[in-house]
Each structure stands twice: as C-alpha cells, then as structure tokens.
Design a protein that fits this description.
Elements (H helix, E strand, L loop, with lengths): L5 H9 L3 E4 L5 E4 L4 E3 L12 H6 L3 E4 L3 H9 L12 H12 L3 E8 L2 E11 L2 E9 L4 H15 L4 E5 L3 H4 L4 E3 L1 H12 L18
Parallel strand pairs: 7-8
Antiparallel strand pairs: 1-2, 3-8, 3-9, 4-5, 5-6, 6-7
Helix pairs in contact: 1-4
C-alpha cells in the first residue's frame, strides 16, 4: 500500500473526507455526519481573552515552523493516550505545506514556539486540523488570528470536522452532511489567498 501523499489529501478535502491514524498507524478516512463548522461571521473572542490580545503577550508568525506545530499537536496530552497524527500524516501534510495548501498560525514567547494550529486551505475553505499550547491562551490567540485572517481574505467556510468542547468554545455548530457538501463545493470554487498580513491590523475589532 502506498504512503499518504499530498495529492491524496487534496482529493480528500475537495470531496469532504480527511484521514486520521489509528494507534498502530493505520490510516482511515472520515466524513462525519453531521459536520462541525465555525461560522466566520459569529465568532467573538471570549472576554477573558481580550486583555491578552490587547497586551500583545504573544508574537504571531505564519508558516514559520509548520512541522513544529504539527509535532506540538501530535505530542501526548494528559487526557489522551494516543495521537491520530502519525509520522506518515506529518510527512504528507508537510509536503502539502510546501505546495502552498497547508498553513500554520504560531504563537511565540521569547522566540520560543508555545502554541499554534494548522490546517488546509483550498479555494475559500479552510479545514482546521489541530492546535496545541504549552502556555495558557497560546492556542486561543492563534485561533483568533486565524479567524481575522480568514475574514480579511474573504474565506467562506471554516471546517472543524467533529464537534467537541474545544471547538464549541469557539462557536462551532453542527450541520447536516448534505449542507456541508453544498457549502464545500461552493467554497472551493472561489478564490482566496491565505496570507500573513501585518499583525498590526489584527485586533482592531476588539
């Protein structure tokens, strides 16, 4: 069986499916019904996060250490025994990043990576994959920057795949798979560019 490739990932995302690895490394493709998405027009940062944003506690970088973010997301967590991010997945997504389809939003303190997230961008759709933090609020700030970037760049859909408490706090909702496929097809037919615009413009709407 051939290894997961960047082409496999692009085909999968364009058709509403995505891979995850089992504990033994076996890859499975998923297409949840219902599907979790975060409406871009309704997200608001939590009141408790606003002082952190206004202080500029974290330095934001885009695509500076994509693999580092993936490995941060793959690291063991207290409430999870295994990770679905295998070495095969890291290799494939890193290649997708080199091709310009996968991106990371990173937070730094004293030049050290302390949090971030990564995902895939096709057309005007961003497929959020995972996030991590080693310092409180680091991933929340990265997510806030992601939302601001997607809004500025006129993205239409932010896919978060499965519903859970982590994405609920960012405003995630579930929609029927049929509705998701319709939004997906419309979104990937549009043009949008994921860019690292000036951080100075990020928090003007707080």
């Amino acid at each position: 069986m051939s290894l997961l490739s960047a082409d496999d990932l692009i085909y999968g995302y364009m058709n509403g499916i995505f891979p995850m690895a089992d504990s033994d490394g076996t890859l499975y493709w998923y297409s949840p019904d219902p599907r979790a998405v975060i409406p871009l027009d309704t997200y608001k940062p939590a009141k408790s996060l606003r002082p952190v944003l206004n202080k500029g506690t974290f330095e934001i970088r885009i695509n500076a250490d994509f693999e580092g973010v993936m490995r941060g997301c793959a690291a063991p967590r207290p409430d999870e025994e295994n990770t679905w991010i295998s070495e095969e997945i890291i290799d494939a997504y890193t290649e997708l990043h080199r091709l310009g389809f996968a991106h990371s939003v990173e937070t730094y303190v004293d030049n050290q990576l302390v949090g971030g997230l990564y995902g895939v961008a096709i057309g005007a759709v961003f497929f959020g994959e995972s996030m991590f933090h080693t310092v409180s609020n680091a991933s929340k700030v990265a997510f806030h920057y992601l939302i601001e970037t997607l809004r500025r760049q006129k993205y239409e859909l932010l896919d978060t795949q499965f519903i859970n408490d982590n994405v609920r706090r960012f405003g995630a909702i579930e929609i029927p798979k049929s509705d998701y496929v319709r939004l997906l097809k419309r979104g990937i037919a549009q043009k949008a560019r994921f860019t690292d615009d000036s951080v100075a413009h990020l928090f003007t709407s707080l």
